[in-house]
Amino acid sequence: MSDNKTGLTGFEILKSCFIGCEAGYDESDIVIFGAPFDGTVTFRPGSRFAPMSMRAESIGLETYSPYQNKDLEDMKIYDAGDLDLPFGDTSRALQKIAGIERYIIKAGKRPVMIGGEHLVSLPAIEEALKAYPDLHIIHFDAHTDLRDEYLGEKLSHANVIRRVWDLVGDGRIHQFGIRSGTREEFEWADSGHTKLHRYTTKGIEETVKELSGVPVYVTIDLDVLDPSIFPGTGTPEAGGVSFMELENALIALSGLDIKAADVVELSPHYDASGVSTAVACKVLRELLLVMG
Amino acid sequence: MSDNKTGLTGFEILKSCFIGCEAGYDESDIVIFGAPFDGTVTFRPGSRFAPMSMRAESIGLETYSPYQNKDLEDMKIYDAGDLDLPFGDTSRALQKIAGIERYIIKAGKRPVMIGGEHLVSLPAIEEALKAYPDLHIIHFDAHTDLRDEYLGEKLSHANVIRRVWDLVGDGRIHQFGIRSGTREEFEWADSGHTKLHRYTTKGIEETVKELSGVPVYVTIDLDVLDPSIFPGTGTPEAGGVSFMELENALIALSGLDIKAADVVELSPHYDASGVSTAVACKVLRELLLVMG
Amino acid sequence: MSDNKTGLTGFEILKSCFIGCEAGYDESDIVIFGAPFDGTVTFRPGSRFAPMSMRAESIGLETYSPYQNKDLEDMKIYDAGDLDLPFGDTSRALQKIAGIERYIIKAGKRPVMIGGEHLVSLPAIEEALKAYPDLHIIHFDAHTDLRDEYLGEKLSHANVIRRVWDLVGDGRIHQFGIRSGTREEFEWADSGHTKLHRYTTKGIEETVKELSGVPVYVTIDLDVLDPSIFPGTGTPEAGGVSFMELENALIALSGLDIKAADVVELSPHYDASGVSTAVACKVLRELLLVMG
Amino acid sequence: MSDNKTGLTGFEILKSCFIGCEAGYDESDIVIFGAPFDGTVTFRPGSRFAPMSMRAESIGLETYSPYQNKDLEDMKIYDAGDLDLPFGDTSRALQKIAGIERYIIKAGKRPVMIGGEHLVSLPAIEEALKAYPDLHIIHFDAHTDLRDEYLGEKLSHANVIRRVWDLVGDGRIHQFGIRSGTREEFEWADSGHTKLHRYTTKGIEETVKELSGVPVYVTIDLDVLDPSIFPGTGTPEAGGVSFMELENALIALSGLDIKAADVVELSPHYDASGVSTAVACKVLRELLLVMG
Amino acid sequence: MSDNKTGLTGFEILKSCFIGCEAGYDESDIVIFGAPFDGTVTFRPGSRFAPMSMRAESIGLETYSPYQNKDLEDMKIYDAGDLDLPFGDTSRALQKIAGIERYIIKAGKRPVMIGGEHLVSLPAIEEALKAYPDLHIIHFDAHTDLRDEYLGEKLSHANVIRRVWDLVGDGRIHQFGIRSGTREEFEWADSGHTKLHRYTTKGIEETVKELSGVPVYVTIDLDVLDPSIFPGTGTPEAGGVSFMELENALIALSGLDIKAADVVELSPHYDASGVSTAVACKVLRELLLVMG
Amino acid sequence: MSDNKTGLTGFEILKSCFIGCEAGYDESDIVIFGAPFDGTVTFRPGSRFAPMSMRAESIGLETYSPYQNKDLEDMKIYDAGDLDLPFGDTSRALQKIAGIERYIIKAGKRPVMIGGEHLVSLPAIEEALKAYPDLHIIHFDAHTDLRDEYLGEKLSHANVIRRVWDLVGDGRIHQFGIRSGTREEFEWADSGHTKLHRYTTKGIEETVKELSGVPVYVTIDLDVLDPSIFPGTGTPEAGGVSFMELENALIALSGLDIKAADVVELSPHYDASGVSTAVACKVLRELLLVMG
C-alpha cells in the first residue's frame, strides 16, 4: 500500500505493505491483495486474519532469497491491501473477489491473492479462466476438496476444487500433496477427473514439462505443509510435505507462465508462536520470486 | 444427554451433559440445547465452540447455588446436545433452530438455548412469539444490536434485536447494560422503540413489576459482563456489569413467567484461562434455577 | 457413545463419540474407552484431558485412510466414553481400568484405551495377559520407562514397562523409538530383558515376522513422535520419529493378532494449536484400521 | 535461598529467592518454603508450578508496601526453596510437609508455605496445632472445602477444611469469602461447626477482636479472589472479593498472633498474562508484612 | 494513514488507520502516531507491539461514545502511522520522537502518541514544554516512576517522571492511581515535589479547577487500570482503578486545554484474549473525544 | 548454583541449577552462566527469559545421553546463575559479560554461556580470543549476521558475526545452516571472508579435520534448527536443520579443543508448549557432553 502522507514528510514511518512490495500500482507487474473471508468453514475459522498478520510479520523476512538468488526489491509489486468482505453472504463475498481479479487481469497485471479460506480461489480461478481459456490449475493441498456437496452446501472450502472442475473439466487440475479425503473423492479423482499426486510433490517436474507454454493458475493451500512446520491452519493433517519440499516444487515451476496465484488457509491465531505466519510469508516471497 | 449403554453396564462413566441436567426428555420441564453457529460474525468468530466447552467445563461447577438456595438436581432438565448447523447458509441454520424451538414449546416444555452468536436468538424468539403473542423480551447486552443494516446485511449478530423489534414493535424490548452502539441506534431506542437502560441493570425491578404475569423471553448476551470477568467473547467492551450485578438482576427475575431463554456469545478460545467458560456455566445455572 | 434421545427425534444432533465409532456395544468388535488419569506425573500433568479432547476434535478427521484404503465406517467400533477415575489414589484408579478391560475381553471384544498417562497401560496389559498368557507387547515410546523405582515409587509413568516386565519376563517386550533414559535402563534392556530399538522404528518388520500368530498388545506412547509434530505431551524429547515413520510402522503391524491396544500421553493443553490432538486422532484411526 | 558461590565472587548475579527474602536461616524470624503438590486435584491441576513461578516473577514487585508503609527488607525472612514431593503417594507428600513445618516451628520461627493445592495446608495446620493447642484458623476461600468425602476420598483439596475440623472441632475455623459448595456443606457449617462468612470478608474485624491473644493460622486459598483478578486457579468461581477487599482484610489481621500461614491454589499456567502470579506475589508480600 | 491508491479505485479496501481517524494531515487538528519502543524495559518487554495491535483491533470499536455523546467522525484526526525506531540506542530513539512531536506542534496541531514504554513520554513532554513553558502534567499510572536511577540508568521507564520533574520542577506533576514504588519515591513525592494521589483518581476535580486555562499534557500509563481489566502490560499491579473510574476521570478533564497526550504501556501479547488492546483503544477514543 | 542452607538441613529441596551441573566452582572444569540480554532485538524480544526457563525445565531431561553414551553426572560443571544486566545500555551489558568470561578463562576453566540474543557472543568471543589468539569460530545459525550496519547500528544481533570478523579476519569463521540474509551478506561471505555453508551442516567433518589442535569457540544460534522443532525464537526461518542433524554435527565436534561456547536466541514465551526450551536444554546437554 503506497501511503500518501502529504504534509508530514521527512519521518521514517514503518511500512504497512508486505515487505518488498512497495511499487506503485501503475508501474506494477504483480498486484497482491487480501481476501479475508472464512465464512464457510465448519470446524475452525480464523483464516480471515491471515492477510493482516502476514503484512505485519513480513518485517521479519528478508526480501532476498538465497534459494533462487532473487530479490523482491528487483521486482515491481503493488500491495493493494485487503478487500472488505461481508460475512453471512457467501456469494456476495465471492463476487467482490471476482471483481478485483478481473480488474487486475484486464490491466495486464497478474493478481496474487492472500486468503482467507480456500473457497476464495473459486472466483479468482473463474476470472483467470475467462481471460485464459486454456488455463491449467496447479493445486497444492492436504485435502482433495473434491466433494460434490459438503453438509448440503455446493459452495464451501471442502468442495472448491470440485467447483473448479465444473469449470475446466477433466485433466486440467494437477493436485499435489493430497493425503485426506473420502474414498469417493480419491476414486473420483483417480478415474481421470484430476491428476492427483498423493502425499508428496513427486511428479511436479513432469507436470511442468507438460504445461510448458500453457497459462497456469497456482493455488497453494498452505496445509499441504506438514503441521509440524505449519500448525496455524483450520484442519491440520499430519504427514505433509516439508518446507524444503514445497520450496523445491515452487522453484520447479519457474519456467511456467503463471497468470495468477493464491496462498490460502493460514489461520494465524492457532499458532501463537508466529511460525505459521512466518512460513506463509516465506512461501509467498518464493512464489512471487518464481513469478518474477 | 441420556446415554443408552446397553451391554456395558456397571461402570462409572463420565457424563457428557451439562452438570445437573440429567433428566430424560419426557420427564423434563426445561430442555437445553446448543446452537453452535457464528457465521455472520465479522470481527472475531468462535462462539460456535461455546456449547461444547460449557458442557465439558460444567464439571467444575456445583449444582447448588448458595445465592438462591436452590439445586439443579431438584429440577427436571434435559440436555438435548448440539444442533448440527450449516455454515455459509445463514437462513438454513436459523430454520433448524426454529424447528427445535417449536418442537420443545409444542411439547409444553421450556427451551433454553446455548449460542452461538446472538443471531441465533432471532428464530428462538420468533417461535416463542408464535406460541405467546404478548411476549416481552428482556435483553442483557453490551451492544444495542439495533442497526437496521450491518455491512449491507439485514441478518447479523449486530442487528438481531432490530429484527426482533420488527416482530414485536415498540415497548416490548427491555435492554440492560448497553454501552456500545452508534448514535443513531441510541437515539432510535430512546425515541420509544425499546426501553434501553445504559451501562447497568438499574431499573430491572421496575421492569419485573411491569411484566408481572406476562410471558417473557430472556436473552443474555454474555458480553454484558465486564471483560475483566468475561474476556472470552468476540467484541469485549469495557465498563460492563460485574458478575454479582448480573446475578442480582437474574434473581430479580424470579417471579416472572419465563417461557424461553438463551445465553449467547461465549467464545471460549479467546480466554485460555477457562474463566469465561466457567462464568458462562454459572450464569446458565443461575438462569435455570431462576426458571425453576 | 450411542445416545438414547427418546422423545426428541428428527433433529440432527452432533455426535459425541470418536468419529466413525458409532456402533452399538453388542454388535461391536472393538470397544474404545478413555482412562483420563495422570496422577503419578511429576513434571507436567494434563494427559487426563486427552480422551475428551480427542473426541471433540475427531470431527476434523476423515474416517477414510488413503494410506490403508480402509474406512472406520466399515468397522464395528463402540465408544464407551470415559471412566470416572479418582485422583490421589493410584491403585483404585488402576483397578477400575482393569475392571473394564476384563469385561470387554471376556465379551470377546478387543479393548482400545485412550490415556491418560502411560501407567494406565499396566492394568490393561495385565488383564490382556490373563486372557492371553503368551502375550507380547509392542511398545512405541521416547522413553525407556524401565526404572525399577522413580522418586521412591514402584508405580509411575516412568516405570510402567518395568512393571510389565515383572509380569512377562525377558524377551517379550519390543520397544521402538527409544531415545531417553538412564544409562542403567539402557544397559538393563540391552542385557536381554527387553528388545530395545533406539531412536527409530527400524526392525519392526523382523519383529512382526517373529510374532506371527502370537497375541499382541500394542501400546503407543505418543511422545515417540518428534515434538515438532507432537508438542502436546508432558516430557517432549527431540529426535523422535516422524508421523509417516510411525504410520508405516503401524501398517507393518497389519498381519498381527492384536488383542488390545492403547494410545497414551497426549496432553492437549500444552499444544494450543490443536495439532497434537489432531495427530493423536489420526494415529488412533490408523491403529483401529490396522486392527480391522 | 542464600547461595554460596565460593570462588566466583564480584559479579552481580540475579537472585533466585522470593524478592526481599534474603536473610540467612539462622537470623530469620519467618521461613518461607514451597510445597509444589497438586496430586488430588480432579479437575484442573497445575498449582505445583506456583512456588517456582512466584519466585521468578517476584522480581516485578517492589519490597515496599504503600498500604502498610512497611518494607520486606526491614524484616528477616529466609526462603528455603521448594520441597521435593512425590506424586501418586499423597500421604508421603503430606508427611514431608509436616516434617519441615515441625522443624521450623521447633526452631522458634514461623513457617509460611506456598502451595500447591489446598490439601497441603492440612499437615501444616496439624503441626501448628501440636505446638499451639488453642490454635484458631482464619480461612479465605471461594469454596467451603467441608465435604466429608470427595469422590470416595477422605484426603483431598475439596475436604481439607473438614479434616482440619476433625482436629480442632467446632467454632475454631473462621471462613471468609465462601461462595461455592453443596447445600449439605453450607448447612453443616451454619449449624455451628464453622464460622462461615458468605461471599465477602465482612465480619473480619469482629473475628480479629475475638481472637486477640490467641495463636492463629492463616490459610489463603487465592481463589477467594474474583477470577477477574485471579484467573490462574483450578476452579475459578465468579463473584469473589476484589484485591483491595482482601488487602484490607489482611491489614485487619495486623494485631493477631499469627504463628504460621500459607497461600495456596495458584495455577500459573492457566493465566498466560502473568497477572495471577503477580497478584499471588503481592498477597504474599502483604501477608508477610502483616506478620512483621 | 491516508492511502493513495491511484489506478486501483472503486474497491472497498479495509482501512489501516485507527478507527475514525481518517482525516488528511492538512485538515487535521489532532495527529496520532505510534512510538513502538520498549528498549529500557527490564522485566517484560512487548509494548513495542501496541500501536500496530491497536490499529488492527480498533475495528471492533464504535466511533461513537455514549458516555460523552460525541463521535470521532465529527473530529479531524490524522493517523501518521508508526515511527521506525532503533533498538539498542535509546537516545537516538528519543530524538526521533522529539522530532515528530516538534513538527506537529509547530504546525499548530496537537500530537497524541501511542507508546511504547513510558520513557517515550519524556521527549514528547520536553517538546510540549518548549512550546508551552507553563505546561502542567497529568499523570495516570500504577507506579511512581520517580526513581532517580534505576539499575544504574538515568533514562528508563522506571524514572521517566523524575526526568520530567528535572524539567518542570515542583508542583507541576499531578499523579493519580499510584500504588507502587519505593518508600523513598513516595516520601520524595509527598515532600512537595509532585502532587501524588494514591490508589484512585480522587482529587481529579480539584486538579482540573486548579489547572483552568493552563496548558496541560496528559500521559496515561495504562497500567493505572486494574490488571483484571488490563492484564496486557509489563508490570501488572493489583488494586488499580476500574475502567469506569478512569473514564470518569477523563471526562472530568473535558474543560482543560490539553496540548498533547499519550497512552503507553500496552503489551498486547501478554493478553491473548485481546481485551487489553480493546480497552486501550477505548481509552484512546475517550481521550481523543475529550480533546475534541 | 550450590546453595548454602546452613541450619535447615535434612530436607529434600528441589535444585535450582541446570540438571546435572551441581559441582562446586573450585572443582569445576566448565562453568555455565546466563546472559539474559535482548536489548538490540528489533522484531520480537524475549531471549532474556531463556536461562531461567532452561534451568526450570531441565528437570524434564535425563543427564545421560544415549547418543554419546556419556552422563553429565560424570563431569564437573558449575552453574553460576545469571548475570544481572542493564537494559537500554548495550555497551555496559557487554562489558559485564566480558568480565565474567575473562574471570572464568583466567581460572583455567571453560565458560559456556546461555543467551540472550546473539550479540552476547561478541564479548565472549573477544575474551576467548585474547586468551587463545589463534581461535576459530564454529557458528550454527539460520542467519548470516554479517551486515556491517543494521538500522544504523554497529552492535546488534544482526551483525554480531561481522563484528567477530572485525576481530579475527578472513577464514576463521565457519558458518553452518545459513539460509537467510541479504544478497550482499552472502556475496561478502562467499568472497572469502567466512566459510559459509548454506542450509545444512554438510561439511562439518572437513572443518573438524582442518581445525584439529586449534582452539575453537562454538556459538549455537538455536534458530539454526527448523522452526518446526524450535518455534520459540525471535526470527523463525523455515528450512532449517532437524534436531538429529544438529546432534550429529555436535558429535562430529567431539575431538576438537573447544575453549568456550554458547547457546543463544531461545525465546521461551513464543512457544507455550515448552518444546523449544526442552530442545535448548537437550542441545546444551549434548554440547556439554561433547566438551567433556
Give a count of the beta strands of chain A, DSSP E runs of length 2 or more.
Answer: 10
Structural class of the helices, strands and pairings of chain A? alpha/beta
CATH top level assignment of chain A: Alpha Beta
Q: In whole angstroms, how far apart are the ends of chain A? A: 19 Å
Q: How would you name the oligomeric state of the polypeptide chains in this document? A: homohexamer
Gyration radius over CA of chain A: 18 Å
Strand order of the largest sheet of chain A: 4-1-5-10-9-6-7-8
Question: Largest inter-chain interface?
Answer: A-E, 35 and 35 residues
Structure annotation, total helices of chain A: 8
Helical fraction of chain A: 25-40%
Largest sheet of chain A: 8 strands, parallel
* Contiguous uncertain segments of 5+ residues of chain A: 1-6
CATH superfamily of chain A: Ureohydrolase domain
How would you state the average pLDDT of chain A, rounded? Answer: 94
H and E order of chain A: EHEEEHEHEHEHEHEHEH
Task: Quickly count the domains of chain A.
Answer: 1
What name is given to the CATH topology of chain A? Arginase, Chain A
- Supply the CATH architecture of chain A: 3-Layer(aba) Sandwich
Bulk shape of chain A: globular
Strand content of chain A: 15-25%
